Amino acid sequence: MAMQLKRPILIGGIGLSLALGLLETIQHSVTEVGETAFLGIIAVSTWVWLFGKPSKEVQLITGYQAPTNEKVEKAIARSHATIEELAKEAKTTNSKLELNARISQLKDSAAKLPEELKRQQLHVTVTGGKGAGKTAIVEQIKSNWMPQTAKKVELTEITWPGIGTSDQERSEVPPPSDLILFVTTGDLTEPESKAIAEQTSKGQRLILIWNKQDQYLPEQQPQILQKLRERVAGILAVEDVVAIASAPKPIKVRRHQADGTIEESVETPNPEISTLTERITKILEKESQQLVWATTIQKAEAVKLEAKSVLNQIRRERAKPVIEQYQWIAATAAFANPFPALDLLATAAVNAQLIVDLGEIYQQKFSLEQGKQVAGSMANLMLKLGLVELSTKTLTTILKSHAATFVAGGAVQGVSAAYLTRIAGLTLLEYLQSQEVAIDANSSNPLNLDSLSKILETVFQQNQQLGFLQSFAKQALGRILPKSQPVETASS
What we know:
Layout: H1 8-20, H2 27-33, H3 35-51, H4 69-90, H5 96-111, H6 113-116, E1 122-128, H7 134-145, E2 153-157, E3 179-184, H8 190-201, E4 206-210, H9 221-231, E5 241-243, E6 251-256, E7 262-267, H10 274-336, H11 343-361, H12 368-384, H13 387-398, H14 405-433, H15 449-462, H16 466-480
Parallel strand pairs: 1-2, 1-3, 3-4, 4-5
Antiparallel strand pairs: 6-7
Helix pairs in contact: 1-11, 2-3, 3-12, 3-13, 4-5, 4-10, 5-10, 10-11, 10-14, 11-12, 11-14, 12-15, 13-14, 14-15, 14-16
């Protein structure tokens, strides 16, 4: 079925590409410098001319930040907004009964969030790797601290997923807790550091506990504690890193008697957890309300993410056919161009309109001008990462040459244009799925190039399997070559 190009930017971009393609004298330059090198030069100059140089945003990850009532209200509002958006788009799908039941459950969960703010009992979780002494800490807190506090506290012990456990022993990420007591027995491992950074960046209140300090010499203990504090500087406050000995090992004691003899005995020192209990007491006394706010925010986030996951499934089903349509438009336009390098003009025009249409599906509306800018940003990223040259070389080795040079060159450029358009579409799809659902019509999300670059690399790697590329090349050739010509690709 023939595709009708009703988009102004597509017609303008493809028309410009075909017009420039008539300059046959430039073909001699392509022969001299090599098609791939010239392709890169044309790509850079074309996209900078069309879209300009994008500005790069840097996003820094910070540690724990105390929540506010305003943040809680916004988190709850986002969960409701995502559910409402899901309910609206669910009406356009076939499996309405199943979705309606799930939406009803999500609405119930969101409705309970305001009640969470009135909670008096606080949830404290003791966690860390296996063998860190978590059980001994729980026992000491329950026997020596909880009877003396007026606060209602529920204490839970868990092993943090992926720390000191095998894959078979890993459990699910624990539910939100008002306060996490994270236990380690020395210098932090990479998984421990990552877990602490991730939790605090999400607003989780956390105390880092160095347990078993009795196993080190007294002169070593301050050095190890200082090193731990330096490791988490900027993530945790100095006073939130404490050293304890929840279950000291027995030690041999020698006592000199009056008669000159020496008497030896084995004694177990008393547990030393006062620095921990004092810190817990201070936090619960001064930050109880903030702890409940932080947990409510995490629960609202969990409801929102579940709703967003279902919403993304619906939108993905709508977006994939759009990407496929535009990849074949790009292939046809590039194949029709007698000057291969300039097919990037047509591809850029197709990508810009694709971005506008995908943004519409994901309620992140882009104007044509914004579509150009996003396309330019993605084009620059592709060039910097070497994806344009790599994909062109790979597809060239897969495709067998046809009898006519024009058809062979056009086929390679057509398949490459389709492939790069597909990569751009899938990248933007994944990027848009990670964005927030707008609470109001005036909210906007500026393009994060760091995030887009990471997604682009991942999507490219996922679509680099030889089997997929061979199948894609055959499918693309079937779209652009005359029906009388055989479709052949290299088997290796």
